[in-house]
């Protein structure tokens, strides 16, 4: 079973993020879910994104790194949208990472170093018409990552919803979330 460090999105640590973690725990995985927003949860995505900008994306990433400090090296790093920043940073820079799951976002590999680390598998999930994923460069970054390593997979789902895997948000898409969850379980089953 895998040990997972899961980072929430710009709304904060919502019930849907906790439920997703619970699904992974029910399958036998150990899941750590730090609160990068120190207790704040935002109903509106723009308010949450505004808070992240105010605090600073470097601070959000630093909080994620701090959450990993007392955990073993052999983690799978999982991020929902904004949470991809610390998840991808740790997967690329912290020795011993077992994998990365990047949901609703992807950052250019150059942001955290020169290349994706050899032997660290990664899955990227997003909707094919999600304005944040497609128009803000995440899809391009995901395709570049997949082209750079045989350990990467990109899964595109039909639709325009951003946080479609969070069951507590209006953007939730049950069918797409079920398929994403199935693929995540498959990925975790292959982690060594």
Task: Tell me what the structure shows.
The chain is α/β, with parallel strands linked by helices and 192 residues long. Helices cover 40% and strands 16% of the residues. The protein contains seven helices and six strands; from the N terminus they run E-H-E-H-H-E-H-E-E-H-H-E-H. Strands 2-1-3-4-5-6 form a six-stranded parallel sheet, sandwiched between helices. Helix 3 crosses helix 4. The model has no long low-confidence stretch (mean pLDDT 96).
Largest sheet: 6 strands, parallel
**In percent, how helical is the residue content?**
40-55%
Rounded to the nearest angstrom, the radius of gyration is 15 Å
Strand order of the largest sheet: 2-1-3-4-5-6
| Percent strand | 15-25%
SSE class: alpha/beta
Mean pLDDT: 96
Determine the oligomeric state from the structure: single chain
Q: Total number of helical segments? A: 7
Question: TL;DR?
Answer:
The protein has 192 residues and is an alpha/beta fold.
Give me some keywords for this one:
192 residues, single chain, globular, six-stranded parallel beta sheet
Summarize the helices and strands and which ones pair or pack.
Elements lengths: L2 E5 L7 H12 L3 E3 L12 H11 L1 H12 L7 E5 L3 H10 L5 E5 L18 E6 L3 H5 L2 H11 L3 E6 L16 H16 L3
Parallel strand pairs: 1-2, 1-3, 3-4, 4-5, 5-6
Helix pairs in contact: 2-3, 3-4
């Amino acid at each position: 079973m895998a040990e997972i460090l899961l980072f929430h999105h710009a709304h904060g640590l919502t019930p849907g993020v906790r439920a997703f973690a619970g699904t992974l725990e029910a399958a036998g995985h150990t899941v750590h879910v730090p609160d990068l927003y120190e207790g704040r949860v935002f109903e509106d995505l723009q308010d949450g994104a505004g808070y992240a900008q105010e605090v600073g994306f470097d601070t959000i990433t630093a909080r994620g790194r701090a959450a990993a400090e007392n955990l073993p090296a052999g983690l799978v790093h999982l991020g929902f949208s904004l949470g991809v920043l610390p998840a991808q940073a740790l997967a690329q820079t912290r020795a011993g990472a077992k994998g990365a799951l990047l949901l609703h976002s992807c950052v250019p590999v150059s942001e955290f170093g020169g290349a994706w680390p050899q032997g660290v598998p990664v899955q990227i999930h997003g909707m094919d018409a999600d304005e944040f994923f497609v128009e803000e460069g995440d899809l391009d970054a995901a395709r570049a990552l997949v082209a750079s390593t045989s350990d990467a997979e990109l899964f595109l789902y039909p639709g325009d919803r951003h946080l479609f895997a969070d069951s507590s948000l209006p953007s939730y898409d049950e069918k797409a979330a079920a398929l994403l969850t199935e693929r995540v379980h498959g990925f975790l089953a292959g982690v060594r």
